[in-house]
Amino acid sequence: MKKLGSALLGIIVLCGLLFLFNFNLNRNTSGAREKEKVLNIFNWGDYIDPSLVKKFERQSGYRVTIQTFDSNESMIEKIRQGGTTYDLTMPSEYMVEKMRKMNLLKPIDHRKIKNLNQIDPLFLNQSFDPKNRYSLPYFWGTLGIIYNDKFIKPNTIKHWKDLWSSKYKNAILLIDSVRDVFAISLISQNQSINTTNLNILHQAKEKLVKLTPNIKAIVADEIKMYMEQEEGYLAVDWSGEAAEMISVNPHLHYFVPEEGSNLWIDSFVIPRTAKHFDAIYKFLNFMSEPENAAQNAKYVGYSTPNRGAKKILPPKIVQQRAFYPSDQTMNHLATYRDLGAKVVEEYNDLYLEFKMARQ
Amino acid sequence: MAKFKHFLVAAPYYLWIGLFVILPIGLIFIYSFHDLNGHFTLNNYLNFFKNQTYLLMAFNSLCFAIIITFISLIVAYPIAWIISKFQNSRDFLILLVIMPMWINLLLKTYAFIGIFSRNGTLNNLLASLGLGRHQFLFTDIAFILVAVYDQLPFMILPIYNSVITINHSLINASFDLGASKTQTFWRIIVPLTLPGIKSGVQAIFIPSLSLFMITRLIGGNRVITLGTAIEEHFLSTMNWGMGSTIGVILIIAMILIMLLTKESK
User: Fold this and answer.
1) Cβ contact (<8 Å) for A341 and B60?
2) A98 and A90 in contact (C-beta within 8 Å)?
3) What is the pLDDT of residue A22?
4) Quick check: A359 pLDDT over 60?
5) Do residues A78 and A84 lie in contact, with contact meaning Cβ atoms separated by under 8 Å?
6) Residue A151 CB coordination number (10 Å)
7) Is B119 at the interface with chain A, CB within 8 A?
8) Which of A89, A174, A175, B163 has its CA 20 to 30 A from that of A348?
């Protein structure tokens, strides 16, 4: 009993010491924060080449800290509640629109951005942020179809509507994401992926219910594993995920149906709580230098909006139609708009109904 | 003074219950009356009972929970009984039952993906026996199997505890008085182990109603339970009000089941 008591006391003392140590450490860094040159980035996991960050630190003398998030929703929640000191973050387009509407962003001073002309105009002045007052494209990608050529001959599937074919019974792995699943159905019916018309939405749901016999599972990150291991041979997923799968299993192929799909753009934005503006603009300029953007694109595997970088990247990467689609396909791509809480709720309810449908 | 001392000793307990039981349940309750904009509303509850989706989902969850609980009971009862027969090694055998509980559920579930997948252990075995490869992953049966596997210890332990306390002279008396084996089992043994069965059922039925991770990883979201809906409302749709409403309804269901399976004295 005595032993137990002293052990317990020891643990408590140790905890206290660690706490003090931590407190001291924090005080030191926060004290240093005012004097020292730092830049706080809030990024998706593994979404920037660490050696580029080191290079920036060497060149500019700023110390970069990176914290990561795993969904747009958790990111906005943290920033909305305040108390954070993030200087830059990289949300998807619909979230840029939402943050903009909630006054969570500071405008970007275009005069301080040197390489704006390097960004492909295709990705600028989008409806989620007219004139790019608040955002600067970082990476982009698409929603598309991945198949394994051992089981499906190339070019047998060309359009979204081919997924409904009875040939693919119990075969499709679907990405568990409301807007993307509805996009498949809406595009196959020639509707806008941003429709707010409830009739059209209900029709889209009915059409999705007809897809259920072909659906093997509705999952998220696991699609990568299942496709690589050939548990499934047909999936709907994002281009970046597809790039990773293909690098593991060369039998896999990705394509964007030419009739249209979602174009997503992750952009740099400056949260309201940002403090280190000098560092922010230095970093934005650094990242948009073609050479650096190309290196980053090579590391991350997503498509870069930087024209200069595209020229530097090996042709093997840039000529892949799957990740840099033809102009004709590009013209049919659309970004998601923030549809407002009411319609989003309708999407969610219908999505749940679709998931409930049994084969 | 004595009372004050008493209170002081119990203070950590009260603090714990208050902070980690009462407060969260209270918050869920309050959230359940709020809509997306944070205004007071009863719509979440109306939605639940008017919307066929949720009722169907509740029915689905109920069916799966009943199946899972029933199978667990049928599997666990003989196991508990057999373990109790090993006079010398039963502590060790119970340890074997408990041991998987020390492993994280996520790891165990991922292991099942490896077993059930098309190139997994089970299919390799079937293929080598010439029975061909079959789809196991993302089926109802796989989901039920993994759920039962996961919950089994919670059924075995209470039943085992009540089995080892049975006074064997009662069973002998039953035989002496001319009862058959079946009669003895249903009239003597089952009533004596009923408390164990009840707490086992309680421990399995409620969590089964709201399983969510297994529905996704093993069921591939082809099995939708109330748990899935809660997860979705809290993590992706951010409709905490509706998620909380489902939570409150589950809590009420739990209280009802506790009352139904309560010791009648």
Assistant:
1) no
2) no
3) 72
4) no
5) yes
6) 13
7) yes
8) A89
CA A316 to chain B, closest CA, distance in angstroms equals 32
DSSP string, B71-99: HHHHHHHHHHHHHHH-TTTHHHHHHHHHG
Q: State the DSSP code for B220.
A: T
Read off the amino acid at residue A188: S
Q: Would an 8 Å CB–CB cutoff place B118 in contact with chain A?
A: yes
| Nearest chain B alpha carbon to A212 | B222
Q: What is the mean pLDDT of residues A19-28?
A: 68
**Using CA atoms, how far apart are residues A169 and A154, in angstroms rounded to an integer?**
18
Q: What is the DSSP letter of A335?
A: P
Among B118, B136, B215, B225, most A C-beta atoms within 10 A, so best to mutate, is B118
Q: Is the pLDDT of residue A200 over 70?
A: yes
Instruction: Give me the residue from B37, B118, B219 closest to A230, CB to CB.
Output: B118
Q: B87 vs A123, which has greater pLDDT?
A: A123
Interface of B with A in 143-162 (CB under 8 A): none
What distances in angstroms separate CA A235 from CA A207, B21, B52, one per listed residue? 18, 42, 30
Across all residues in chain A, what is the average pLDDT?
89
Confidence check: pLDDT of B265 > 50? no
CB-closest option in B37, B119, B229 to A352? B229
- Res. B83: pLDDT tops 70: yes
Which helix (H) or strand (E) covers residue A139, if one does?
Answer: strand A135-148
Q: How far apart are CA A101 and CA A94, in angstroms?
A: 11
Encode pLDDT of B208-235 as tens digits.
988 888 988 898 888 888 988 888 888 7
Alpha carbon separation from A320 to A33, A55, A170 (Å, rounded): 44, 29, 30
Q: pLDDT value at position A244?
A: 85
| Contact assessment for residue A254 and residue A243, using Cβ atoms and an 8 Å cutoff | yes
CATH topology of domain B52-260: MetI-like fold (1.10.3720)
Query: By C-alpha distance, which of A200, A188, A237 is closest to A346?
Result: A200
This model of the complex carries an ipTM of 0.83
The residues spanned by each domain of chain B are: 52-260
Quickly state the pLDDT bin for A1 (edges 50, 70, 90). Answer: low
Q: Please report residues of A whose CB lies closer than 8 A to that of B219.
A: 217
Q: Is the distance from CB of A150 to CB of A201 less than 8 angstroms?
A: no
| Interchain pair A229, B53: CB under 8 A | no
- Measured between beta carbons, the chain B residues lying within 8 angstroms of A231 are 117-119, 137
Main-chain phi, psi angles of B34, to 5 degrees? -120, 145
User: What percent of chain A lies above the pLDDT cut of 70?
Assistant: 95
Contact assignment for A356 to B57 by CB distance below 8 Å:
yes
Q: What is the pLDDT of residues B149-186, one digit of tens each?
A: 999 999 999 999 999 999 889 989 999 999 999 999 99
Inter-chain CB proximity A349 and B51 less than 8 Å? yes
Q: Tell me how far CA of residue B67 lies from CA of A269, A322, B140, B148, B209, in angstroms.
A: 50, 46, 11, 9, 11
* Tokens matching residue B48: 């639940």
